[in-house]
Amino acid sequence: MMPKNIPLLIILFLFVLLIANPALCQEMLTVGGVTCSSGELKSGFINVPAGSDGPEIRIPITVVNGNKKGPVLALTAGIHGYEYPPILALQRLKEQLDPIKINGAVILVHVVNIPSFLKRTIYYNPHDWKNQNRVFPGIIDGTMTERIAFQITDQVLKQCDYHLDLHCGDGNEDLMTYLYYTETGNPELDNKTMALAINFGFKTIIHVTADPKVQKASMCANASLFMGKPAITVECGKLGRTDEQDIVTILHGCSNILKYLKMIDGKPNLLFDPIWIKKTT
Asked: Are 77 and 109 in contact, with CB atoms under 8 Å apart?
């Protein structure tokens, strides 16, 4: 005679199988000084060594390592320290992500360019006066901006499968909301990057046809593309402001990508058919 509680036994067996089988769980992930096991969320820092031009820098990060296997998504904010909506959006996203419900892992880099953030300088690091988004992949023993870029490349970009570099109009820029899709000439990579651009959900997409493989990576997202990883650059916000709508719009886009990559439940909520801009002057 069959026991009446067979369904409960099956559920219990599947649960034990999931916990006991490491092949079904997300692997441990270490980023800078943060080590996260499957099902954990931890915050900490990536340390950038001191140099002749300034002290050690500590870049704040959060790692959300899901319970089940999936892609690793990196989100970088504060490449330019006066661009606040992406920084604020990642603070909120951190509170919304539950590692128990995530497939894969999310690396949140809250403020890449800490020196610029602290001094409220547009574009440039006040220690070496270099633009953080023009020096990737960085140099291990270079100037401060180059050392920061090296650590972000080494600790974050090399470990991710997809990358969203989040920007907005700096203190002197009155920008509309848009994002960049950069074509590389690699059809497989370009198709994945295009899908990333479409599913973020912005109305305006600038299609850059320059091939980063024949150029210096320079920009943060291009450094990921250079390594064969889909990446886009997002622009939402302006003039060093902290408008609520811009923060919400960035959060909505990040949520769309998490759903598109099947890292969380649901489908992307796309409000627009995108307009593609292929020539800028």
From this structure: yes
- List beta partners, residue 181: 207
The CATH topology of domain 27-277 is Aminopeptidase (3.40.630)
Task: Report the 10 Å Cβ neighbour count for 227.
Answer: 16
Return the H-helix or E-strand segment holding 105.
strand 103-109
**Nearest Cα to Cα of residue 71 among 27, 110, 42, 103:** 103
C-alpha 115/C-alpha 267 separation (Å) is 38
Q: Kindly give the pairing relationship between strand 178-182 and strand 231-235.
A: antiparallel
pLDDT tens across 188-232, in order?
999 999 999 999 999 999 999 866 555 666 999 999 999 999 999
Indicate the domain borders of the chain: 27-277
Q: Per-residue DSSP letters for 241-259?
A: ---HHHHHHHHHHHHHHHH
Token couple for 125: 């690091």
Contact in structure between 55 and 147 (CB atoms under 8 Å) = no
